[in-house]
Amino acid sequence: MEVGPESRYQLTAAQLDAAWNERTAAAMVASPANPTGTLLSAPELAELAEVCRRRGGALIVDEIYHGLTYGVDAPSVLQVADDALVINSFSKYFQMTGWRLGWLVVPSQLVEPAIRLAQNLFLCPPAPAQRAALAAFQPETLALLEERRAEFGRRRDFLLEALPSLGWRIPVQPEGAFYVYADVSEVTDDSFTYCQRMLDDVHVAITPGADFGTYRAERHVRVAYTTGIDRLAEAVRRMARAG
């Protein structure tokens, strides 16, 4: 589905309803989203769920970046629709990427099919990963994770101020995850080549919009703020030199 800044790069209920056809079984959205960092509000989630319900399909919501929001809370679709499916993981907020541990919330009628599917993909998560997940819920761990979330927020704020100096536009301020999705059409009409040049010439790695789809991909790049502000500042200085 083609989504742009006018809908904060999120699928709308009107778009979904118009696109639904006899082959459609479900709609899948992410909130907060990668690469845009944008959220769906509770009313927007409810509207999407209603379209899926009326059309006889399912709404699947990727909530993997829940917890990583700045100045706003990300509502869960389960607050407004008990028939939705939720995908979540320990990878992002809990910073357990590589432990391959997550969870799935499904309506009661889908529990048995989900179990059958899981049994043919994996038997159970490794015991060490389960132990680590339990430790992630300890108060001292949660306090540390909140400190890290605050640091992500400071990095985001730095980039929102610094990136426009490169001639980039940020049409929608990210509210979650750890990415900025920027419009670079004032400096290039080919974001893939632009990203390659930044990597080759000044050793800064940013991601072209083509990695996330085809709609206006050539005019967008994604920047991840998963490194410190000092390194982000150095990256901005290098890209400014490269022009």
Automatic annotation (TrEMBL):
GO terms for molecular function: pyridoxal phosphate binding; transaminase activity. Residues 6-236 form the Aminotransferase class I/classII large domain. Pfam families: Aminotran_1_2 (PF00155). GO terms for biological process: amino acid metabolic process. Keywords: Aminotransferase, Pyridoxal phosphate, Transferase. It comes from the Bacteria. Its cofactor is pyridoxal 5'-phosphate. The keyword S-adenosyl-L-methionine does not apply. SUPFAM superfamilies: PLP-dependent transferases. The keyword Acetylation does not apply. PANTHER family: AMINOTRANSFERASE, ASPARTATE AMINOTRANSFERASE. Belongs to the class-I pyridoxal-phosphate-dependent aminotransferase family. This is Putative 8-amino-7-oxononanoate synthase. It comes from Pseudogulbenkiania subflava DSM 22618.
